Amino acid sequence: MSPLDQPTATLPAGAAMRPAPAGRPGGPWLRTRRARATLWQALAVVAMIALLLWLAGNARENMAARNISFGFDFLGNVAGFDIPFHILPWSNTDTYAYALLVCLVNTLLCAAMSIVLASALGLLIALMRLSGNPLAAATARAVMEIVRNTPQLVQIFFIYIAVLQALPPPRASLAFGAGVFLNVRGLLLPAPTIDGRMALLGGLALFLAIAGWFGRQPGRITGVILGPVLIVAWAVAAGLSATWELPALKGFNFVGGLRIPPELLALWLGLSIYTAAFISEIIRAAILAIQHGQTEASLSLGLSRGQTMYLVVLPQALRILIPPLTSQYLNIIKSTTLGAAIAYPDILQIFGRTVLNQSGRALEVMVLLLGVFLSVNLLTSALMNRWNRKLMLQGR
Amino acid sequence: MTATLRALFGTPLNAVLTLVMLGLFWLAIPPFVEWAFAHATWDGLSRKACAPDGACWAFVRARFALFIYGRYPLEERWRVDVVLVTLAVLALGALFAPRGRGWCLGLLMTVLPIGGAVLLTGGVFGLAPVATGDWGGLMLNVVITFIAVLISLPIGVALAFGRQSELPVVRWFSITFIEVWRGSPLLAVLFMGLIMLPMFLPNGVTVDNLVRAVVVLSLFESAYMAETIRGGLQGIPKGQTEAALALGMHKGIAQALVVLPQAMRLAIPGIINIVVDLFKDTTLVSIVGLFDLMGVINQSLKDPNWLGLAMEGYTFAVVLFFFACLLISLAGQTLERRFGSASRNPRR
């Protein structure tokens, strides 16, 4: 019997059918909690529907007044604008729908780059704080506190305007050797050309990494570290086998090579540094949370130091680590929208600004935007929750 | 002394780390001190007065009032001062006063928002009206944060209870509300509030830009508040509710008087984190056309008299925000010590 089925007072079953005592409003059927709950909920639903209808009515009236209709058919129209930075091929004769895909890829690229760098920096700061070296620990702590206590937007503007926009023009580029140049137009890197077989191996490594992550066993970290190890190994092999095209100064600008525009660079560094400060705390807390007794017990059972780390400490630390780490990664995905502040052509900048201004389809654009972010976020968190359950303490 | 030395140079790895750190310091600190202090210019009327190789703090000094008050009319700025000082005094009172802390908190949550709104907007009691478009600078960040916390806290409590409700409609409404807001980027919803709100309101009804931003921020933060408070609620043993019910309390009263106060005490650290995040996030309103500290700094950097001083402007913003956030954190720690779950107040 669910709590909802119980009458309010502890009366025998069927008591609810008695006439209501004087002073209590409503008929006898209102005496049960279930009936009252249903009534309240029905009222709430009616109120919500009424509110929605009112909003929709207003929207319809406003749109009619401005002579615009609702529909996604405009997505098939030719966009006609330029996207200053894109990975997928883009020309201004492509459609709005394709523009959505192009800038979604831009958003995801920046998110992926930031997740990698933020994790690495976070680990570095955490290790510095745990190193036992007072100088390193204090420096890491100071950096972390400053970064955590200043707005992300200020940091991004700082990097973009105060640092990157103040760099010299291409002709006076800062040269770091090995074909790496930094100037006001961005960071220039040698561009690798990877042959087909190597690319195929890369796809395989990525597949194994994902499979390893989702196929990981509770209490084992093999599946989790397999991915990064494989990908790093592939990157080294691919880097060695690739032919590199160096950027070269021709006239007033560089030709060839790989150019990371300053907008992407600022957003990438800004997101990574900010999130790294939070990730470092998460990693530190996870490692400190594994009591020293665990290590001692494992060593006294005759396990080696490596086995202790691999079989006892890391699996437990990972269990604590993953849920907060997931929410940091989700924050990164959401924070890529800050790119709109420095005109990085992410989905908010291109869709929320350019497309919206050009087509006037405010409602549709916003539905698309929030739809994209909600689905990316809900999907990621659902997957993480689903697979996190595997790692949780059993028997709780 | 030997202990310090051992900590710094005890093992080869540690020694290398120490040397690397010292090298980094040597590379970073002297140039910074030279730029920020030794070669800096503190007085001047334009960029030309500043030394080329040092910081031009004259810029920040010349614009200081703008950074704090925005375009709030010069002769009316005392009103901002009164509101901010009252806020500070009441907050200090709520934290440290030997008695009457409850009174301070009550005033902070009722009289200050209403009185402050009247004083800042003006238009009554012979006060000159000041359009919200003229509010700006750090004062705007503080005002937005304060109002948004005030609105989002009760909504968060309601949503936290709603999420645990036995009524499916209430529960699902709360879950949907929380997850949709938590899944959306703040900047995107701020855009949405700016562009979409007029569409959904009856023709001719306009809402002030600042109000739109505050409403969006409040709803956004209330979803996060709800999750933190839910954490607090889950930390209260079921026995508390059962005991209250056994004493004959009505269910709602038991939740409000027994469970919620304890849950809020547990939730204090989380709430303080949200307030710090909210304060930092108020800078996003600069992208949707309000002139908060970030907005006025960005605008000042375009002044032809002070071109190319981004480093100074943003360094100032970093310093100001750092100390403001530190202040909020310190207040939060005090709050936690006084009222938090771990408090061992001997006077109680």
Structure report:
The complex is a heterodimer of chains A (396) and B (348). Chain A is built from 11 helices and 8 strands. Chain A is α+β, with helices and mostly antiparallel strands and 396 residues long. Among the domains of chain A are: 109-190 and 246-344, MetI-like (MetI-like fold); 196-240, no CATH class; 346-388, no CATH class. Chain A has a 4-stranded antiparallel sheet with strand order 1-2-3-8. Chain A is globular and about 70 Å long. The relative contact order of chain A is 0.11. Chain B has one domain: Orthogonal Bundle (MetI-like fold), CATH 1.10.3720. Chain B has helices at residues 2-9, 12-38, 57-69, 77-96, 101-109, 111-121, 137-163, 168-183, 186-200, 209-234, 238-246, 251-281, 293-300, 310-339. In chain B, helix 3 packs across helix 13 (293-300), helix 9 crosses helix 10 (209-234) and helix 12 (251-281) packs antiparallel against helix 14 (310-339). Chain B is globular. At the A-B interface, helix 1, helix 3, helix 4, helix 10 and helix 11 of A face helix 1, helix 2, helix 8, helix 9 and helix 12 of B.
Question: Any descriptors?
Answer:
heterodimer, A: MetI-like fold, 4-stranded antiparallel sheet, 62% helix, globular, B: 348 residues, MetI-like fold, disordered C terminus
